[in-house]
Amino acid sequence: MAAPRVSLGPLKEPLGLIRALQWFFSIFAFSTCGGFDGSVTFRVTCDGRDNHTVSAAFGYPFRLNQAVFQPSLTHLCNHTWPKDVHLVGDFSSASRFFVGVAVAAFLYSLGALGAYLAYLHLYRCAGSRLPLVVSHQVCPGVPGGF
Predict the structure, then answer these.
(1) Fewest CB atoms within 10 A around its CB: which of 9, 108, 114, 131?
(2) Model-level pTM?
(3) Which long-range contacts (CB under 8 A, 24 or more apart) does 98-104 make?
């Protein structure tokens, strides 16, 4: 195996630029889901009493069934609710899958960009088998790789 020769020159070419953009946008794929939080707010009106604003906050990993409304609804309007009210749904598996795929895309694109920048001289070398090896790694079992 030849020693890597790292050069940033290939980033000016379309393939290098696309790999750099893929790496850059994969960061946003998991950061937008992992850093999201929200809330549900509504107003409770009781006969002859002050209005109350009730809200439930939620965030990643989106276990909505664990989000409890604050202040507790059991103390409002003459105790008409016998227990605390939760939001409906548990979307943690879907959001964790999305973040997992985004992290895998980030790591793949980082490795592909690093390999492209470090071993481009082997890829362009006349008689090199690196393009054939790379194509069979991407599409195994297909003649010619594609």
Answers:
(1) 9
(2) 0.64
(3) 98/29, 98/30, 98/33, 99/30, 99/33, 99/34, 99/60, 102/26, 102/29, 102/30, 102/33, 103/30
